[in-house]
Automatic annotation (TrEMBL):
Listed Pfam families: F-box-like (PF12937), LRR_4 (PF12799)
Swiss-Prot/TrEMBL keywords: Leucine-rich repeat, Repeat
Superkingdom as given in the UniProt entry: Eukaryota
Annotated organism of origin: Pelobates cultripes
Name of the protein described by the UniProt record: F-box and leucine-rich repeat 14
Length: 429
């Protein structure tokens, strides 16, 4: 029976706020337009704490708009077309901003507009190609409270500008994706050993060879810099490492020793895996590794016998992987809880039917764009720990087959049935 409007409005505010958390932004806007009381509720900061406001053009908004965003305590914004004056307007209107992403080409001294944001923690710049590295880092080091910094399409002219990052002593996450795929290894080595809080690192390293890449993770020797007062830490404490667009495979023993604290490794657009033992070496030399991602990389075929690993999360996205490689992973990481094979290929339905035996502890399984039949879907019901199953973009499963699976599993598994078919977008492309 439908509740009369007057009774619905008499529900406690905390109940209404909880209900509104399930609404989309468009649905919230519709509720907000009904009356002053609901407008006030919809603007409650708890409903917007994880929201990202996307600005296409800042200059078109009036004071009332900025007041609304300020009342909601918006913390994250993404901007495209913007001038220095507009950046200053946004920073003054939204002083609580902690996260800024600029999704267009950075120009001139525009970052000066963010200087009023004393609480800025995360800064992501997707295109730095029109700014010299000297000018870029001169502006960035002003934000010494930053914990996350991501710079894409940077051109490094020399060693010294990059070393100024050591002034950002609170950095937890650093992404350096250069325009030419070249990062000065000496400068990178210098800053890595002088950022004591750094735990996450992402590098687009182009054709950097094994020895130059390894040098970045080796204890630096004598090195001249303007920031010699920053002490050198004895060991890296990285937890997450991402290597992109790499033309080499391998790290020296000394480098792997410095990376022994890693819990997650992502190799994206990695060119050489098929004839190297890099994957096996990573699993063998990194004892704390629980997550491995091979995304849009070269085919991988194991060369060694199964080795003991603590791996819990394996992601092979857009990459060829054979039945034999999946079996090898099942023996090397028998405690695997998450397996992502979205857009991957090279294996067949026969090995999918063996997943309950190969990966009995799986809690999440992603098979978007994988050819599955009703028979193989029924077999996957025997994954008794499974909580999430992605079978989107599958043209071979009928609604009847999916309904039968739901009945067999008593709806204990959350099914993902729809996902846009699109290539993954990375900010440095």
């Amino acid at each position: 029976m439908k509740m009369p409007p007057i009774q619905w409005l008499q529900l406690p505010q905390e109940v209404l706020l909880h209900i509104f958390t399930f609404l989309s932004p468009t649905e919230k806007a519709n509720v907000r337009a009904t009356c002053t009381y609901l407008r006030t509720l919809v603007d409650h900061p708890s409903l917007w704490k994880n929201s990202i406001i996307v600005f296409k053009s800042i200059g078109i908004y009036n004071a009332r708009f900025w007041d609304t965003l300020q009342n909601r305590k918006i913390c994250s914004v993404e901007v495209s077309k913007v001038t220095l004056k507009q950046f200053k307007k946004m920073a003054c209107s939204l002083p609580d901003i902690t996260n800024v992403r600029m999704d267009s080409c950075l120009k001139g001294e525009i970052l000066q507009g963010l200087q009023p944001l004393l609480n800025l923690k995360q800064l992501q710049l997707s295109d730095c190609s029109n700014v010299t590295d000297h000018d870029l880092f001169t502006e960035i080091v002003f934000f010494q409270q930053l914990t996350h910094l991501s710079l894409c399409r940077v051109t490094f002219s020399s060693v010294l500008p990059l070393t100024s990052i050591v002034l950002l002593q609170n950095l937890y996450s650093l992404s350096l994706h250069s325009k030419e795929g070249i990062v000065p290894e000496r400068a990178l080595q210098y800053i890595l050993f002088r950022l004591p809080k750094l735990r996450e690192l992402s590098l687009a390293i182009g054709n950097m060879n094994k020895w130059k890449l390894s040098l970045c993770f080796n204890m630096p020797d004598n090195f001249v810099s303007a920031f010699e007062d920053k002490p050198c830490i004895p060991r890296l404490q990285l937890h997450k490492l991402e290597l992109m667009n790499c033309g080499c495979a391998g790290l020296s023993t000394n480098a792997l020793n410095q990376l022994s604290t890693l819990k997650s490794v992502c190799l994206r657009h990695f060119k050489y895996l098929q004839h190297e033992d890099f994957i096996e070496t990573i699993l063998l030399k990194l004892p704390n590794l629980t997550e491995l991602k091979l995304e849009w990389a070269a085919p991988f075929e194991p060369l060694m016998c199964p080795i003991s690993s603590k791996l819990e999360n394996l992601s092979v996205v857009g990459t060829q992987i054979s039945n034999a490689a999946l079996v090898w992973f099942s023996k090397s990481a028998n405690g695997l809880k998450c397996l992502n094979l979205n857009f991957s290929y090279g294996y067949d339905e026969d090995v999918v039917k063996k997943f309950p035996c190969l990966f009995p502890h799986l809690q999440k399984l992603y098979l978007s764009n994988t050819r599955l039949t009703e028979e193989s879907l029924v077999v996957l019901a025997n994954l008794y720990s499974l909580q999430v199953l992605d079978i989107s973009n599958n043209l071979h499963l009928t609604p009847e087959a999916i309904l039968a699976f739901r009945k067999i599993t008593s709806n204990r598994i959350g099914l993902i049935l729809e996902r846009p078919i699109e290539s993954v977008k990375y900010c440095c492309w």
